[in-house]
Design goal:
The protein is α/β, with parallel strands linked by helices. The protein has a single domain, classed as HUPs (Rossmann fold), CATH 3.40.50.620. Helices cover about 30% and strands about 20% of the residues. The chain is built from eight helices and six strands; from the N terminus they run βαβαβααβααββαα. The protein has a six-stranded parallel sheet with strand order 3-2-1-4-5-6, with helices on both faces. Helix 4 runs parallel beside helix 6. It is globular and about 45 Å long. The protein starts with a strand and ends with a helix.
Length: about 190
Amino acid sequence: MKVRRLGLFGGTFDPPHFGHVAALEAAARSGRFDRLLVTVAGDPYLKSADVRPAALRLAMAHAAFDDLALVEVSDLEIRRQGPSYTVDTVRELLEDVDAVDLIVGADLATQLDGWHEAELMRELVAVGIVPRPGSKSVAPAGWRSYEIPMDPVDLSSTYIREMFLKLENLGEFLPARVIPLFEGARG
């Protein structure tokens, strides 16, 4: 069966946390998508010096998301050489699906105009915006966008990485199957 509408949820996922899980569950509940594709950035051009190896981040994404409704975790961006640009992923996906909606947090939505080939992205995708505390769920002018209803989650991978040694219970932030992978890869 051909996928009509795909929700694309990409990121470094270093580590994937309950905020990511909540966003995917909300997207699945929205009824907008036939499938949700999680893409792990192989070489995230905005963060490449800061992240753990792609294979580990992919394993953590599988551990976090494999059991969620409609969700498939992909190594598409890891297999591609060079920097991971969302526009390249969208182009490839549109060969097999009718429409791709980009799913982003409200904190990133305002940055869309700065993404690689943003003008083309505006034409290719609609943007589903996941609410974040302190951020308006608004995309820059010219983007087709809508809000994915959910209660905002105040959590970030950066916070977890920076506070790792001080956090007493990673189970408050990370799915149980992610914890041993994350703890085993102190970096």
